[in-house]
Write a structure and sequence with these properties.
This protein has about 550 residues and is α+β, with helices and mostly antiparallel strands. Helix content is about 35%, strand content about 10%. Helix 3 runs parallel beside helix 5. It binds ligand G3I and ligand 9MR. The site of ligand 9MR has 8 residues, from loops. Ligand G3I binds next to loops. Its EC number is 3.2.1.4. Belongs to the glycosyl hydrolase 9 (cellulase E) family. It comes from Kribbella sindirgiensis.
């Protein structure tokens, strides 16, 4: 049938910063400039102007015109933009429109912790649940988890950490990326906001308490001394077979295994361990020392085993497969160099940031983001070049924001949207924000903020991809506990949870059934079964939290 994308005037349904850019997209086949009106909550016209005809927007297939109301600076709620009879969803103009999102996006992590009860006093009755995988039946993990049969003959206590996503697997490469992004968020903003988590009120900033929950887990995934491949890190721990939905973590009956160590997981632990050592030095010296020691052990082991790759496919868990660990080597070297200053790491830093950004699979760009946090380690000329590289990537994102009908830094060269495309948007926003901080250029800040507009409703499906934010937002992300659409006694996703977003690969049965022939930017469906367009994941919410914190501080 015909899909309902809401009003043709597409806005950030949360709102716009008083001092930020304010643009919208109007879907229309009209090709001449039209009059737009900004209405306040009393329906009074408070600003007017002319649209800019744009034409066909390739990723969405929509004909659109652009609206710029950036000259309006008054704050208030219940604004709407109108063109002729078409009226947008309401939005706020204000200075603190991102303060709740910044906090909610971080509380995603406590809600997805493994190994402790999620308590009503922090999350409310609807989101409370028993601890998962603490060695209590029917669970078969995670206190003593054996290696996958035939791969080694010990068991490890790998309890704790965060569940990856809608599933109950725990995967090192992207779990590390998420924890790293929280550490980098701390580097960016300092202690930041307080969270509703058990550690609130201790002397450590809450964002670091949350990151430590995952860091403790990834350190447990390291092969102990005396075993074959000592110092390497197991790629993942997950169920033997995929479970169905819904399913509480505490009710997962599947056997769980440690999957073989990989060079990528090991180098990621080297990288995040080094960052951990630097960040926690001020807060928890013993933990910082433990991180550095694990990082150095991992580095040495990975140098001895440079090509142990996690295989594609497999049963019961995500593969997070990767056949090249040279980018992870470079990132780890950069973090170790940034933390220790030891010149021996320098020759291994072989990658730089480009507009391709970074992902759990492509970590090369993170080397520059590591060095950007310790510029004093670099000779002046190298420092300048580093800033130039980050600015060059940001320039591409600005051009992408300016050249697309639905302003968005993500513009894949093949025109196809990848699984988790929304994280390409948030990660680009992070790079734009860092470029802004390094150069002071306002265009970078504006493009970072317009990335939020895309995620919060100014897009081809007229949807805010973040639960609880906007008039029409994603409710049914793929999650085994937040599975309200399958069982009304269960909650919807916690507010501040971002969906993976449009994916032209149509890699799940629901997408294959309902999205055939979709334009790439419209290959999204808010159904719980569509894991390839509508799942949540730790490394996506970490990017959202980072970008929202920047927007809130802007
Ligand atoms: O690396 C290639 C790139 O070179 C190419 O240009 C591009 C376009 O086709 O594809 C890139 O590979 C993609 C890869 O992610 C890295 O971005 C694959 O096509 C894509 O299928 C793959 O998707 C991953 C998906 O698992 C399937 O493996 C997502 O990134 C990843 O977030 C997702 O993770 C899942 C876990 O497996 C299980 N738990 C839930 C989690 C979130 O859905
Ligand atoms: O729930 C799983 C989700 O987290 C993964 O991203 C996805 C792809 O690996 O797999 C989901 O599990 C499904 C499995 O792949 C096929 N059988 C049904 C499972 C639940 O939808």
């Amino acid at each position: 049938g015909v899909r309902d994308f809401g009003p043709p005037v597409r806005v950030n349904q949360v709102g716009y910063l008083t001092t930020g850019p304010k643009r919208a997209t109007f879907v229309t086949t009209e090709t001449t400039a039209l009059d737009w009106r900004l209405l306040d909550n009393a329906n009074k016209v408070v600003a007017t102007g002319k649209t800019s005809p744009y034409g066909a927007d390739a990723p969405s297939g929509d004909s659109v015109q652009l609206i710029d109301f950036g000259r309006y600076h008054r704050s208030g709620t219940g604004f709407r933009l109108a063109v002729g009879d078409a009226v947008s969803d309401p939005f706020t103009i204000g200075d603190r429109i991102y303060s709740t999102l910044r906090k909610d996006a971080l509380e995603y992590f406590y809600n997805n912790r493994s190994g402790l009860p999620i308590e009503a006093k922090y999350v409310g009755d609807a989101y409370a649940r028993p601890a998962g995988h603490v060695g209590v039946a029917p669970n078969q993990g995670d206190v003593s988890v054996p290696c996958f049969p035939g791969t080694c003959d010990y068991s490890l206590d790998v309890s704790g950490g965060w569940y990856d996503a809608g599933d109950h697997g725990k995967y090192v490469v992207n779990g590390v990326l998420a924890a790293w992004q929280l550490l980098d968020l701390y580097d960016e903003t300092g202690p930041g906001v307080s969270l509703k988590i058990p550690e609130a009120g201790d002397r450590t900033p809450d964002v670091l308490d949350e990151a430590k929950w995952e860091l403790d887990f990834v350190l447990r995934m390291q092969v102990p001394a005396g075993q074959p491949l000592a110092g390497m890190v197991h790629h993942s721990i997950h169920d033997e077979k995929w479970t169905g939905l819904p399913l509480l973590p505490s009710a997962d009956p599947q056997p769980r295994y440690l999957y073989p160590p990989s060079t990528a997981a090991t180098l990621n632990v080297a990288a995040v361990g080094a960052r951990c050592a630097r960040v926690y030095a001020k807060w928890d010296k013993a933990f910082a020392a433990r991180c550095l020691s694990a990082a150095q052990t991992a580095w040495t082991a990975a140098r001895q085993h440079p090509d142990l790759y996690a295989p594609p496919g497999g049963e019961g868990g995500g593969a997070y497969d990767d056949t090249n660990a040279t980018d992870e080597l470079s990132w780890a070297a950069a973090e170790l160099f940034a933390t220790t200053g030891a010149p021996s790491y320098k020759k291994f830093i072989t990658t730089t940031l480009t507009a391709d950004g970074f992902s759990w699979r492509d970590a090369g760009g993170l080397a520059d983001l590591a060095l950007a946090r310790t510029p004093w380690r670099l000779p002046v000329l190298d420092r300048l070049r580093l800033v130039q590289r980050i600015a060059k990537a940001a320039d591409t994102y600005v051009a992408n924001v300016r050249s697309q009908g639905y302003a968005n830094p993500y513009k894949p060269t093949d025109g196809q949207y990848v699984w988790g495309s929304n994280s390409a948007v948030t990660n680009s926003a992070m790079i734009l924000a860092i470029a802004h901080n390094l150069t002071g250029r306002r265009s970078y800040r504006d493009a970072a903020l317009e990335s939020m507009d895309y995620l919060l409703g100014r897009n081809a499906v007229g949807t805010s991809y973040v639960t609880g934010y906007g008039t029409r937002y994603s409710h049914n992300q793929h999650h085994r506990f937040w599975a309200h659409s399958l069982n009304p006694a269960l909650p919807s996703p916690y507010p501040g949870s971002i969906a993976g977003g449009p994916n032209s690969g149509l890699q799940d049965p629901v997408a294959q059934r309902d999205l055939q022939g979709c334009a790439p930017a419209k290959c999204y469906i808010d159904e719980i079964g569509s894991y390839s367009t509508n799942e949540v994941a730790v490394n996506w919410n970490s990017a959202l939290a980072w970008a929202a914190a920047f927007a809130d501080a802007s």
